[in-house]
Amino acid sequence: SAKKAKDFLPFLQRSRRHPAVVEYVLSGHRFKLLIPKETCSIAFSFSGVRCPGRDEPYSDEAIAFMRRKILQRDVE
């Protein structure tokens, strides 16, 4: 919700690095991260990275690759 997002914003702005776990791969460059310390989930996207969209060639391969590499991994 919008209120929850506003509540977590100061925490996320305080520090540049946050330990998290990749919960879900939405696409080749978008992920859902869980920040266990604050028990919040955020959507994360790489900036400047171009990946095929769902209806473009190689989109399934991009998603499968990212699932193999980072799904359920600790990230910072």
TrEMBL record:
Domain of life, per UniProt, equals: Eukaryota
Under the heading Gene3D superfamilies, the entry gives: 2.40.50.90
Q: Name one GO molecular function term.
A: RNA binding
**GO CC annotations, alphabetized:** cytosol; nucleus
Gene Ontology BP annotations: mRNA catabolic process
Q: What is this protein called?
A: Uncharacterized protein
The organism named in the record is Nymphaea colorata (pocket water lily)
